């Protein structure tokens, strides 16, 4: 699905596919150290082949992921710019662990919102009602964006990390442009 962002650039948002391994590896290398730390809570330089296989082999029920690619405005994908994923909790199948990252040059223009909207729609369609996320307390943008997708159920802090749980709301996320 192609979208025009508030800054005029175009993106395509779609489910992750096997061939996105290359884009994930390149995307990681393009992230700033700060964005890498915000996403992974540690610094890392690359994914292992096993990690890449795991990240792209989503079954659409227990593990879902959406990617965003820059588009030329004609429907052609140029470079990967973001990813959002949800992994269903094995103990409580109505809860999914959610995480997302957007390249630095694309942050703040609606890419994360577009990715999370698609993730929310798919999550709800497969019975995931709540998202849980471990976010660094200083990552106010990510915390704020997650709160826009539902009603906060709980929040706990453990040092530098916040564990946030939101009940996904179709009313709340459908109104996000």
Short description:
This protein is α+β, with helices and mostly antiparallel strands. It is 31% helix and 35% strand.
What is this structure's SSE topology?
Elements: E1 2-4, E2 10-15, H1 21-30, H2 33-40, H3 49-56, E3 63-71, E4 77-88, E5 95-102, H4 111-125, E6 130-136, H5 140-147, E7 150-158, E8 161-168, H6 170-174
Parallel strand pairs: 5-6
Antiparallel strand pairs: 1-2, 2-3, 3-4, 4-5, 6-8, 7-8
What labels describe this entry?
Aminopeptidase, 35% strand, globular
Question: What would your notes on this structure say?
Answer:
With 177 residues, the chain is of the alpha+beta class. The protein has one domain: 3-Layer(aba) Sandwich (Aminopeptidase). The protein is 31% helix and 35% strand. The protein has six helices and eight strands, in the order ββαααβββαβαββα. The protein has an eight-stranded mixed beta sheet, sandwiched between helices.
- Helicity, as a percent range: 25-40%
Shape: globular
- Poorly predicted sequence stretches spanning 5 or more consecutive residues: none
Q: How many strand units?
A: 8
CATH C-level name:
Alpha Beta
Tally of domains: 1
Distinct helical segment count = 6
Taking the sheet with the most strands, its summary is: 8 strands, mixed
Structural class comes to alpha+beta
Element order: H for helix, E for strand: EEHHHEEEHEHEEH
- Strand order in the largest sheet: 1-2-3-4-5-6-8-7
CATH level-4 homologous superfamily:
Gcn5-related N-acetyltransferase (GNAT)
**Overall pLDDT, averaged?**
91
Any idea what the CATH architecture is? Answer: 3-Layer(aba) Sandwich
% residues in beta strands: 35-45%
The CATH topology is Aminopeptidase
Q: What gap, in angstroms, lies between the N and C termini?
A: 15 Å
Radius of gyration: 15 Å
